[in-house]
Write a structure and sequence with these properties.
It contains twelve helices and 25 strands. It is α+β, with helices and mostly antiparallel strands. A hairpin with a 4-residue loop joins strand 9 (179-188) and strand 10 (193-197). The termini are far apart.
Length: 526
């Protein structure tokens, strides 16, 4: 039977009335405070960041309290994690933790009233090894030696085997003697065959970090990371511990990049845009998440701000030769902005058939901007205009009648071409050489032989200079006799024409005599 006394209903109402009145008479402020405090408590509990708690999981937290034997850690769950103080004592018994410190630990046990944490599985013997395997908590192990197919590792007082494919990256010489954390993957023959894996632990940590990252970012987001390694096809960037994204060579920069080490090195902190997050099957047959990144997309397209990056047409700027093409060379005048120097714009001084005869990839050059087409994203450049047109002042440099010195450039059926200055060539015509007393001497001259001549005519528009031997006054040419063409019948066309004229004259003479006779007869009759 119950110890409580049952009262009549009427009496219960009477006895409860004074209580209700007393509660109603209590100050409204106090009631409001109690209600707000209760609401705050509920909201606080609801707003606590909840984490997925499971055995063998790695968590991060902050030390909120500690005593001689225990450390209490807030890991974002409703319950605080509990760790043993021995996890933070060194060999001399000194404690290396204090309230407010951030710590990392592994969940070793989960119950309705407690969450046990540990830095790693401690202890010795088969019981500790079995507990570590069942809980998935890592154990510390020291690599003692290299053996066939892997390494021997000292784990919790037992010798375990770690396959070479499951060990951390490094040479055998560098790994022996080091201490790592391992997962116990297999225990057989009562502990005589213990297999551990370091890679499995890294994969598990990576998966946990990846899931946390994917909850925070989406495709198109700009993220920050650290360059971890370079490859022939690009660079790997670590976004969170254990999670990497790949930047292809084509996405490293708006400039043309042949090797990743041209602009990056391991350890660099970079901003990158997430292009794609996808799942692909790896060589092991399992699905792996792949994150494609772009450093250049995070920087923005330089053509969007070309007005501020590139000088106006007509300006002379410095650039870098990026690549050679059959029709010219591409020169970068701003990061991601390349222009073309056509073969015809390479030089004033020589005919250019191959761009690599003038410039080489990587060479710094000065070019003149001739045109910028934003719509087609093309820039026309000129090497020779940046150097200046040698014909611009040719009239003052080589006036008519002046005596000049030059070098034989070549001989042709037109005459002798003479280089007077870089980019300026004059011609001693063949006809004038024939009139000269030294015609044979001119014909014997070889390439680059010095020669002194006189300027006869200058045409800067046509870029022509006519030269004559010094002091020579060219004589007018005698008109050549035109050979008479024979008629179709084998006769001389000109002769036939003369015969035709003579016959016509004779006919006209006979006609005139008859007219005179008729006129005389008329006069006599009258």
């Amino acid at each position: 039977m119950s110890d409580e006394l049952t009262m009549p209903k009427d009496e219960q109402q009477e006895n409860t009335a004074p209580v209700e009145e007393a509660q109603a008479a209590a100050p409204a402020a106090d009631a409001g405070d109690e209600e707000m405090s209760f609401a705050d408590i509920m909201a606080k509990q609801d707003n606590i960041a909840q984490v997925r708690i499971q055995k063998g999981q790695k968590v991060q937290g902050k030390v909120v309290d500690m005593n001689e034997d225990t450390v209490f850690v807030n890991i974002g769950a409703k319950l605080e994690g509990v760790m043993e103080m021995n996890d933070f004592r060194d060999a001399e018994g000194n404690v290396s933790v204090s309230v407010g410190d951030d710590v990392e630990a592994w969940i070793t046990q989960v119950s309705s009233g407690e969450i046990r944490l540990a830095r790693s599985m401690s202890g010795a013997g088969m019981q500790a090894i079995e507990e570590a395997r069942e809980s998935g908590v890592p154990v510390e192990g020291k690599v003692t030696e290299q053996c066939k197919g892997g390494y021997h590792v000292d784990v919790l007082g037992k010798t375990a085997f770690c396959p070479g494919s499951q060990m951390a990256h490094g040479t055998p010489e560098s790994l022996v003697g080091q201490t790592f954390q391992f997962l116990i993957t297999r225990v057989e023959s009562r502990g005589r065959n213990i297999v551990v894996s370091h890679r499995a632990l890294l994969d598990r940590q990576r998966e946990q970090s990846l899931q946390a990252l994917l909850e925070q970012v989406r495709e198109g987001d700009i993220v920050e990371g650290k360059v971890t390694r370079l490859a022939s096809f690009g660079a790997f960037v670590e976004l969170v511990p254990g999670v990497e994204g790949m930047v292809h060579l084509s996405e490293l920069s708006w400039s043309r990049v042949m090797k990743a080490d041209e602009i990056l090195k391991p350890g660099d902190i970079v901003q990158a845009k997430i292009l794609k997050i996808s799942k692909e099957k790896g060589r092991d047959g399992n699905e792996h998440t792949r994150i494609s990144l772009s450093i250049r997309e995070a920087q923005g397209n330089p053509w969007d701000n070309i007005e501020t990056l590139v000088a106006a047409p007509g300006s002379v700027v410095e650039g870098k030769v990026m690549r050679i093409a059959p029709f010219g060379a591409f020169v970068e005048i701003a990061p991601g902005i390349e222009g073309l120097v056509h073969l015809s714009e390479m030089s004033w001084t020589q005919r250019v058939n191959r761009a690599d005869d003038i410039v080489q990839p990587g060479q710094k050059v000065r070019v003149k901007i001739k045109d910028i087409n934003v719509e087609s994203k093309r820039v026309s450049l000129s090497l020779r205009d940046a150097e200046g047109d040698p014909w611009a002042d040719v009239v003052t440099r080589f006036p008519v009648g002046s005596v000049v010195e030059g070098k034989v450039e070549s001989q042709s059926r037109f005459g002798l071409f003479v280089t007077l200055a870089p980019g300026i060539t004059g011609l001693l015509p063949e006809g004038i050489m024939r009139q000269s007393k030294t015609e044979e001497e001119y014909q014997k001259l070889e390439k680059d032989a010095p020669i002194t001549l006189e300027v006869q005519r200058v045409d800067p528009v046509a870029r022509r200079i006519t030269l004559v031997p010094e002091g020579m006054q060219p004589q007018p040419r005698e008109p050549r006799e035109r050979k008479e063409k024979s008629s179709r019948k084998g006769g001389n066309a000109s002769g036939d024409w003369h015969k035709h004229q003579k016959t016509e004259q004779e006919d006209n003479s006979s006609f005139n005599t008859l007219a005179q006779s008729l006129q005389q007869a008329l006069q006599n009759k009258q």
